[in-house]
Amino acid sequence: MLAFIVRRLMQAVAVMITVAFIAFMLFQYVGDPVVFLLGQDATPEQIHALRSALGLDRSFVVQFWHFLVHAAQGEFGLSLRQGAKVSRLLAERLPATLELTLVSALLALAFGIPMGVYAALRRGSFSSQLLMTLSLLGVSLPTFLIGILLILVFAVTLGWFPSFGRGEVVQIGWWSTGLLSAKGWHHIALPAITLAIFQLTLIMRLVRAEMLEVLRTDYIKFARARGLSSRVIHFGHALKNTLVPVMTITGLQLGGLIAFAIITETVFQWPGMGLLFIQSVTFADIPVMAAYLCLIALIFVLINLMVDLLYFAVDPRLRVDRAGGH
Q1: pLDDT by residue (tens digit) across 278-304?
Q2: What is the C-alpha to C-alpha distance for residues 145 and 195, in angstroms, rounded to an integer?
Q3: The whole model's pTM is what?
Q4: Are the C-beta atoms of 194 and 149 separated by less than 8 Å?
């Protein structure tokens, strides 16, 4: 187990260094930050002084080393557009993104797993075929189109939900949340559903496929031969083994929810990191873009590490039997 953790940590460090290098290259080839800060009318003396103060006159290796050191401390400089520290901007937007992602993931799991089990156990029925057809639509339709349709129906036509913003938030220290107020839940409903639909349909189809595969195995046949009830076989044996690969995919998709919430946050003007990133791309705000890239990579690495450890603990086939030599 210790060797497994060490290998995964080494891989995580290698991935983060690679991502940091890619983020650092943004500073080298996507505009000149000195020109952004001083403007076109700056004198050569001002440009030289600021370039020296920022360390841009040093060698490539030295600049990259300083970038790594500051990135490890969570410092990415100042936003070229807002003039504020990038770390503070991300810290202000992080709660909104995590809140939206968490609610979306819970919706996807709460509805995706039961629907997948039902579609597998009622294979061939009209309701099962209807679910599979709807899931195909959910996988095929782009997220921005789903969001626009939900806004058109539930915000514009029916007027049941607001179409933008986060609503009323409660401040707990530096953390802000809308889940402690009714208006916060009212505002998060449509964006959470929009973000959850793709993940929900993916989980449903995966659970159905895995459930059908497990139901064909020999130990399920032996369980039926022993006279066990269908409920015990389906939910006590088959479902438990079905959820092992589902757990892995779901964990990785959680990172995808955080990374790809950009579209949902843009459609609903949700004040999260995704909207901040889109704004930084529009204005070529390189420090924000680099920080967002590193943060998303870190989230992916941490989630992947936790999923690997959990998978290693749940599935005994992955454990190393040193005594047996396997």
Answers
A1: 888 777 777 888 888 888 888 888 887
A2: 11
A3: 0.77
A4: no
